[in-house]
Amino acid sequence: MRKQIAAANWKMNLSFQEAETLIDKMVPECNNLGENQQVIFAVPSPYLTMAQAKVADQANVFVAAQNIYSKKSGAYTGEVSVAMLQSIGVDHAIIGHSERRDYFNESNQFLAEKVKICLDENIVPVFCCGEALPVRESNEQNSFVKQQLEESLFSLSADENQKVVIAYEPIWAIGTGKTATSDQAQEMHAHIRQQLASKYGEAVAANISILYGGSVKAANAKEIFGKPDVDGGLVGGSSLIADEFIQIIKALK
Ligand code: PGA
Could you give the CA distance from residue 222 to residue 80 in angstroms, rounded to a whole number? Predict the structure, then answer.
């Protein structure tokens, strides 16, 4: 059965001290997670070790890097490798967040390399996809997201693909307060699952968690997560507020 996941994406926010205070408030709230539920904290790189130590004894709670590089090691000043994550016990990484795609020109092909190196080194990639507003307005979101999946994920084996967590994040809903309706989310998630099913078969597709991201908050999480193909959320702004994110965790199926 696929996992239901609440993933916090803190982005480039918080001092070390603020991050520590926040994670200390949230981790104890993960004591009653169901067997099928997970919480992931994607924290800024300098805080990975601290955060990993906080969750190490907690079942079903993980720390993620917000990005990694596509090479194993070498002269890549400023980059973080998957081997580095492994060496501190971190086993998840966000790949292809729209902010990386937009501000750092990360292409579908480049992201395919990043996903692959994560899987080769036993890091779970949380692969982000999603369309910008003009694509949505011209009703081309399904083919746009299909192409993102094809170019970044579909050269993987079925076995590899089952280890990927997908996050659908319509760019027009990120940080804007404008959430996709639960029906819009369900429609796209069903489309993504359908693409996975036609490439890898129904059983594989049914095993892959697909998270929704874009202005998820305590007030809308239950309705969005309640949709059959929505398996939780990737949460930015609301994951910086302890009470909000705790409610979002409680909204998981
Ligand atoms: P948001 O961000 O919840 O602040 O909209 C989501 C994300 O970018 O992952």
Answer: 35
pLDDT value, residue 206: 97
pLDDT bucket at 209, cuts 50 / 70 / 90: very high
Q: How far apart are the first and last CA of the chain?
A: 12
Q: Burial-class residue 43 by CB neighbours within 10 Å (0-12, 13-18, 19+).
A: buried
169 is catalytic: yes
Taking the C-alpha atoms of residue 117 and residue 109, their distance in angstroms, rounded to an integer, is: 13
Q: What is the CATH number of domain 4-250?
A: 3.20.20.70
Task: Reply yes or no on whether 92 is catalytic.
Answer: no
How many whole angstroms from 59 Cα to the centroid of ligand 1? 25
Q: Which of 97, 106, 189, 191 is catalytic?
A: 97
CA 232, 229, 113: angle at the middle one, nearest 5?
75
Catalytic residue among 92, 131, 169, 189: 169
Tell me the sheet residues that pair with 65: 93
Angle of helix 48-55 relative to helix 16-26, nearest 10 degrees, comes to: 20
Residue with CA nearest ligand 1 atom 7: 236
Instruction: Write the pLDDT tens digit of every residue in 112-150.
Output: 999 999 999 999 999 999 999 999 999 999 999 999 999
pTM: 0.96
pLDDT digits (tens, 9 = 90+) for 81-105: 999 999 999 999 999 999 999 999 9
Q: What residue ranges do the domains of the chain occupy? A: 4-250
